[in-house]
Design brief:
The complex is a heterodimer of chains A (about 400) and B (about 250).
Chain A lengths: L21 H27 L5 H10 L17 H14 L1 H21 L2 H12 L4 E5 L15 E5 L2 E12 L4 E9 L9 E7 L5 E5 L11 E12 L3 E2 L5 H37 L1 E2 L2 E2 L4 H29 L5 H26 L1 H4 L5 H11 L6 H14 L2
Parallel strand pairs in A: 1-4
Antiparallel strand pairs in A: 2-3, 3-7, 4-5, 5-8, 6-7, 9-10
Chain B lengths: L1 E6 L1 E3 L21 E3 L1 H17 L2 E8 L4 H10 L3 E6 L8 H15 L3 E5 L10 H9 L2 E12 L2 E8 L2 E8 L2 E5 L11 H6 L5 E4 L32 H10 L5
Parallel strand pairs in B: 1-4, 1-6, 4-5, 5-11, 6-10, 7-10
Antiparallel strand pairs in B: 2-3, 7-8, 8-9
Helix pairs in contact in B: 3-4
Classes of the chains: A alpha+beta (about 400), B alpha/beta (about 250).
């Protein structure tokens, strides 16, 4: 068991939020209460045991969190992107793995089918994904194609009413619990990104299998695995969007995904700050509380400022998406800023805790390991800079 | 069945108690508010009753407009409508004045059963429920930990010093709800989004003069600091001695 004090169980109130709508504030408060009562107590254990908490996922589904940004006709609650981000933020504040589970399921596993699927696909899968009948996963990364996803090697060859897929995907979040996998494959070799198409792969597809994922640095309570296609036959109508537009579809999906990973990063940073602040006010050194030492005060000031700036960017990107305005650049900025902020804040949170921060007795080392995912997943920091600079240069 | 749940907006448990300048009230600067703990149980019981027997749940509170936050929370959990009997100075009321105002509203709503918390966690009077039943001339079951309602009647369980008591009563009735009666649910996403289509009415009420007024408030004396009697097993005899002699709890 971890030391009870200071612990994330007694998080102080975040004053931010005067500009939220009543719905958004209620969703944030509801998820916060749920996160403190049901998610925080498991955060240490699931990290320690590399365990995906199925019981927590069931509760998340009961609360309706997977449906926040989707319309009611699919079983969603039409709450919008910002409300969804608030939910991810609050979960991540106490447990990054749980925040990631929801973010990957919604933004990557469900959203692309809702956005680009034909009516049949949408009706067949989206309500089940929202109702949590199974999880959704998204397969872009391959052993030889990560940031360079245009270099996808998995192939899809048309054969009558089917496409036959061969290849492999790795680091696929939620894979062991997913019922559908949205994957890219090359339908026309030799022409680069324009030859890539996207498919919805049902779990029970013959010739498709899931293999055990690697051990991870952080996010150990989030599931991941590898996918293998060996002459996997996918029905023609499971093509997501037009043939050859899979890469474009995936890039647009990632724009949305980035906002949620930015919210995930923000939550981790806020959680680490909360714990460090409580510790600084309690722990004594040199005859004073740490919070009375300027070296610590300045760290806290930087952390608070960093988080506040990130929060503005994250909420702004989410609001742009809700208003149907272009948001790719802002999503990349929010993701880059918040993820790097989460690295800085968790690093300083450990420093404030000193030796205790380095030990597993306190949650800050877990938060630091979890934060590292945020500067890699859904586009590394380097990729975010590419996206931002492309956007700037295109419009200048 | 028309069901009413009465709730009170109270300061959160983190609110710091500081005596106001008048010496007979508390300074509420910087306080955050929430619904009283036992009122959550009352609303949950109202919603459970609706789910079992059908009907409509109205949440009624006396308080400022800002209490709409707490009322909304209960609408999100499944109550149907909310009523705020608007009172910007709730601390000036005594339980009798509150009960009278609630009784008038309950009558107007044509309710058959009213659920209230066994006590509000701020003033600790534990009086409004019983007074409300008296004004209405209804049966009153206090501190219920179990409840079965059917057409026109009910059976409740109450925990007493001597064990669990089972009581029978006929409706209409006022039930004051104790911990253990149910486990209040959380609002779901759908519940939160449904709040927009529900109404919270703000109404005036006849505020009768308080018969009991607060003349002075004093904070409890500060607790004495603890004392470490020693470390490890060697300190046990000294600890036992201190618990016997100083603390007198052994």
């Amino acid at each position: 068991m971890q030391t009870e004090t200071p612990s994330p169980y007694t998080l102080p109130e975040i004053k931010h939020g005067f500009d939220l709508t009543q719905d958004q504030a209620m969703i944030r408060d509801m998820v916060r209460e749920f996160a403190l009562a049901e998610v925080a107590p498991l955060a240490h254990e699931i990290d320690e045991n590399h365990r995906f908490p199925e019981e927590t996922w069931k509760k998340i589904v009961e609360l309706g969190l997977p449906g926040i940004p989707f319309p009611e006709e699919y079983g969603g609650s039409n709450g919008g992107t910002l409300a969804y981000c608030l939910a991810v933020e609050e979960l991540s504040r106490v447990c990054g793995s749980t925040g990631l589970t929801l973010a990957a399921h919604v933004s990557l596993g469900t959203f692309p089918i809702y956005k680009w699927g034909n009516e049949r696909l949408k009706k067949a899968y989206v309500p089940k994904l929202i109702a949590g009948e199974y999880m959704g996963a998204y397969g872009l990364t391959e052993p030889n194609a990560g940031s360079d996803s245009g270099g996808t090697q998995t192939t899809a060859v048309k054969d009558g009413d089917h496409y036959v897929l061969n290849g492999a995907k790795c680091f696929i979040t939620n894979a062991n619990y997913a019922g559908t996998f949205i994957c890219t494959a090359v339908t026309e070799p030799g022409i680069g990104a324009k030859g890539i198409s996207a498919f919805v792969v049902p779990r029970d597809t013959k010739g498709f299998r899931i293999e055990k994922g690697e051990q991870k640095l952080g996010m150990r309570g989030s599931d991941w695995a590898s996918l293998v296609f060996q002459d996997a036959r996918i029905p023609k109508d499971h093509l997501l969007g037009p043939e050859g537009e899979g890469f474009k579809t995936f890039m647009k999906t990632l724009d949305g995904g980035r906002v949620s990973i930015a919210a995930l990063s923000l939550g981790i940073a806020q959680g680490a700050y909360d714990v460090a602040l409580a510790y600084a006010k309690e722990r004594e050194a040199f005859g004073k509380h740490l919070s009375e030492l300027q070296a610590v005060q300045f760290k806290l000031a930087n952390m608070a400022m960093d988080i506040e700036a990130s929060r503005h960017l994250v909420y702004h990107a989410a609001r742009l998406k809700d208003a149907n305005l272009p948001y790719a650049k802002e999503a990349a900025m929010a993701k880059l800023m918040a993820s790097e902020c989460s690295m800085r804040v968790t690093y300083d949170a450990i420093q404030i805790h000193g030796g205790y921060g380095y030990s597993r007795e306190y949650p800050v080392e877990r938060m630091w390991r979890d934060a590292k995912l945020c500067v890699i997943g859904e586009g590394t920091s380097e990729v975010q800079r590419m996206i931002i600079s492309r956007n700037i240069l295109r419009n200048s | 069945m028309k069901i009413v749940a009465c709730i009170k907006r109270v300061p959160t448990t983190e609110a710091q108690a500081k005596i106001a300048g008048d010496g007979k009230s508390l300074d509420n600067a910087g306080w955050q508010y929430m619904a009283s703990f036992y009122d959550e149980i009352a609303v949950e019981q109202a919603i459970l009753t609706k789910e079992k027997l059908g009907g409509e749940v109205t949440v009624v509170t006396l308080g400022p407009s800002a209490a709409s936050k707490e009322v909304r929370e209960f609408l999100a959990r499944g109550a149907d409508t909310g009523v705020i009997l608007k009172d910007d100075h709730p601390s000036m009321r005594d339980p009798r004045a509150t009960a009278k105002a609630l009784a008038a509203k309950v009558k107007a709503l044509g309710a058959e059963v009213v659920f209230v918390g066994r006590v509000a966690t701020d003033r600790d009077h534990s009086a409004v429920g019983a007074m409300l039943a008296t004004y209405l001339g209804w049966a009153c079951v206090t501190e219920a930990i179990g409840l079965e309602l059917s057409a026109g009647k009910g059976v409740a369980k109450r925990e007493t010093e001597h064990g669990v008591e089972t009581v029978e009563f006929s409706l209409p009735a006022v039930i004051t709800c104790n911990k253990g009666l149910n486990e209040p649910r959380r609002a779901s996403l759908k519940g939160i989004m449904a709040v927009k289509s529900k109404t919270i009415a703000e109404e005036a009420f006849e505020n009768v003069a308080a018969q009991v007024t607060v003349s002075k408030v004093e904070l409890p004396p500060a607790r004495k600091a603890g004392r470490i009697v020693g470390e490890g097993a060697a300190a046990v005899p000294a600890l036992i001695e201190a618990l016997r002699g100083e603390a007198r709890i052994l």
